[in-house]
Write a structure and sequence with these properties.
The chain is mainly β. About 0% of the residues lie in helices and about 35% in strands.
């Protein structure tokens, strides 16, 4: 292990996003004492993680999602302040140059939810994909980076789910595994940035074993 990269405090159901070149952030989560707004910053050059109070979430919660916007900023959104019924639409913008997070109402989700998949093209837009509020939420929200504005897309997600893995190469967002309306799934969905259209992945892209609460990653650190 790399002890210098340990979290500043033990917690689960937190969220991470990367600035792409020098640092990443971990925020929110919960422990036996409740929900947290705490944010940590991980510096890549030194493999060192430490609490970064200026980056704390505006609202303490677990199971939010995060995505990279462009070279200057990223976003946190969703999650819950209590149980599933206490999910929120709240979104924040984190400014990389100052490590500062601020509530950004224009970026709020179109409907409250937690355990979303998420990904961005790295410069112009990103997606908040599905999630849950006690049942699966099928809509996909698009965030426009230039205006920090989130709005529901016109097309529902193919293969709706929550607590799955997601990643982006800047052209497509992939979401695999997680839980859908039937149960834990092996299948996945693809959302194309150029068309804002979602479709089921071909069978060859499926996970080897059905599972939820999995993690994903992106190429080019999106």
């Amino acid at each position: 292990g790399t002890a210098s990269a340990n979290l500043s405090a033990a917690r689960f159901q937190l969220v991470a996003l990367s600035e792409r070149s020098t640092k990443a952030y971990f925020a929110g989560g919960a422990d036996s004492g409740g929900k947290h707004a705490t944010a940590d910053k991980l510096t890549f050059s030194t493999d060192t993680n430490s609490a970064q109070a200026s980056a704390n979430l505006s609202l303490a919660r677990s199971a939010p999602s995060g995505l990279h916007g462009d070279s200057t900023k990223g976003y946190w959104a969703g999650g819950t302040t209590g149980g599933v019924s206490n999910s929120v639409v709240t979104a924040e913008k984190i400014t990389f140059s100052t490590d500062t997070t601020a509530a950004t109402a224009s970026a709020n989700l179109s409907t409250k939810r937690l355990h979303m998949e998420a990904g961005a093209d790295g410069s112009t837009k990103g997606y908040w994909f599905c999630g849950q509020i006690g049942f699966v939420v099928t809509n996909v929200d698009k965030i426009t980076v230039s205006t920090d504005t989130t709005a529901a897309t016109t097309a529902a997600a193919a293969g709706e789910c929550f607590s799955g893995a997601s990643g982006s190469d800047g052209n497509v967002l992939l979401a695999l595994g997680g839980v859908d309306g039937i149960g834990t799934r092996v299948t996945g969905s693809k959302l194309v940035f150029s068309t804002d259209v979602s479709s089921a992945l071909a069978g060859g892209a499926n996970l080897s074993v059905a599972r939820n609460d999995v993690s994903g990653f992106s190429t080019v650190a999106l």
